[in-house]
Write a structure and sequence with these properties.
about 25% strand, elongated, alpha+beta, about 475 residues, five-stranded mixed β-sheet, 22 strands
């Protein structure tokens, strides 16, 4: 009998040990995995991600994540007493019947549904839970750097269709970029899984190539930083002024002009309205931003001893440091292209230096040794622009090379001759024109390389045109010369 009882106890003990061993084999991996996850959390790897991949990640992360201030709708199938609208509290939690507070901060709607379903499974048999967004919280996004109005902004989303704002949306809301903005290196910083990740947004490729993926979709808590460009390309500023998020063109700027100028001091430069006629249907005409040549005009024009080849525009960056832009006004005069005029920024300081002593050898003397020279004939001629002529070509011949006077618009009695000296100064004089006159220093002088001949409008044409500026290539050249020299 004792033997039988012993055998039964032994068999039962083996069964218990077998079950216990099986349970240990099942349960054991869980704490090992948790321990591994804790180790990984303590020493997270730092991934190296290329700009293209980060943009893909930023664009792909489109699910809305819950946070304090959201209002959600909780529906539990066939359990109406627990269904209803719940606010996400300041600490990121929601307070639910039976289960109490649940932290949903940073969870997507699907993740929140799974969490609530899991908690209610203790009290309900296979609960079917749906979480919807009733009223999204305003997104808080910070923007700094080379932008007109840096700071923190709130964006209200539509509950029915929450479209997230993009980088360009926020720049536009902040008043647009400054003239020193590096639009190729806009940086968006976001917290992902407790870590800060930065994305690079190349807005220049958005403008020039239409690459919409560069306009990153933003999330709550994102920050945007627009750095200062290393080297300013004045040719790109015109393109940036035309962008929706670009340089603002409808605001006057206050600048200081000092040096070889007739009215040094502080001047307010107004933007110019483009296009003619009156405003119709309440629509505002587009405007061109204030420019360097307009500031020179507001200051009375340059003096005879001004060195137009070494003008400086001193501009403050977003952090208060000063950036100096070297400007060759003669290149602007020679090209007559308003698109190459320097766009100004509020607070600019323009320095017009005085010419130093003349160099020993004047480079213009060698123009007679060249096979051809280039002169620019602008204004009311048939074919205005740069003309390639032989050395020792007189003024009359250059006018004829440009097609002659525009018979309907030109002032045929007199023209202006603008000439760059070797020290950077500019001579300008008025010449009485007689196309039948031979070479004469007073009425038909021999031209030099890079000379500019200005043919103005007749009195009747000026009256017919009114006070508006003709912003054609011809009018642009005349406008620049008029701004700088008072023609």
């Amino acid at each position: 009998m004792n033997h039988i009882l012993y055998q039964l106890v032994l068999n039962k003990t083996c069964q218990i040990l077998t079950v216990t061993t099986s349970l240990l084999l099942i349960i054991q991996p869980t704490p090992i995995k948790a321990q591994t996850e804790n180790v990984e959390t303590q020493t997270p790897p730092t991934p190296t991600v290329s700009p293209e991949e980060t943009i893909d990640f930023a664009q792909g992360e489109s699910d809305y994540t819950l946070g304090s201030g959201d209002q959600i709708r909780l529906d539990i199938f066939q359990v109406e007493e627990y269904s209803g609208d719940y606010p996400v509290l300041v600490d990121g939690s929601i307070s639910l019947p039976l289960v109490g507070n649940l932290n949903v901060d940073g969870l997507t709607l699907k993740e929140a549904s799974n969490l609530v379903s899991q908690e209610y499974s203790t009290y309900l048999k296979r609960p079917i839970v749906t979480v919807g967004l009733v009223a999204p919280r305003p997104l808080k996004i910070g923007i700094s750097g080379e932008v007109d109005n840096a700071g923190s902004y709130e964006v209200t989303l539509d509950a029915a269709s929450p479209n997230f704002p993009t980088v360009t949306d926020m720049i536009e809301q902040a008043g647009g970029i400054t003239t020193l903005a590096d639009v190729r290196s806009v940086r968006v910083t976001r917290t992902v899984d407790g870590k800060e990740v930065s994305y690079n947004s190349d807005l220049w490729s958005l403008l020039t190539e239409g690459r919409l993926r560069q306009d990153i979709s933003l999330r709550d808590g994102d920050t945007i930083f627009i750095p200062t460009v290393d080297e300013l390309d004045t040719g790109e500023l015109t393109r940036l002024s035309e962008a929706s998020f670009g340089i603002q063109t409808d605001k006057p700027v206050k600048v200081a002009v000092v040096g070889e100028i007739y009215r040094p001091g502080s001047h307010t430069v107004q933007p110019e309205q483009l296009g003619g006629g009156n405003q119709n249907n309440g629509q505002q005409r587009a405007s061109s931003p204030p420019t360097l040549s307009q500031a020179v005009q507001a200051a009375g024009g340059i003096k005879p001893l001004a060195n137009v080849k070494e003008v400086e525009v001193r501009r403050r960056t977003w952090d208060g440091t000063e950036k100096v832009l070297a400007v060759d006004l003669w290149e602007l005069i020679k090209a007559g292209d308003i698109g190459k005029d320097v766009i100004l920024q509020d607070g600019d300081r323009i320095v017009i230096p005085k010419a130093t002593a003349l160099a020993v050898e004047d480079a213009r003397i060698n123009s007679t040794l060249e096979s051809q020279i280039t002169v620019n004939v602008v204004g009311e001629v048939v074919n205005p622009g740069a003309q390639t002529v032989d050395p020792n070509t007189p003024l009359n011949q250059a006018i004829l090379a440009a097609g002659g006077f525009d018979n309907q618009r030109a002032n045929k009695g007199k023209v202006e001759l603008v000439r760059l000296n070797n020290d950077g100064t500019v001579d300008k004089r008025q010449i009485q024109v007689d196309l039948a006159q031979g070479i004469d220093e007073e009425t038909n002088p021999i031209l030099r390389n890079q000379d500019v001949v200005v043919v103005s409008r007749s009195g009747l044409t000026s009256a017919a045109d009114g006070a508006g500026t003709v912003l054609s290539p011809v009018g642009g050249a005349l406008g620049i010369l008029r701004f700088i020299f008072g023609f």
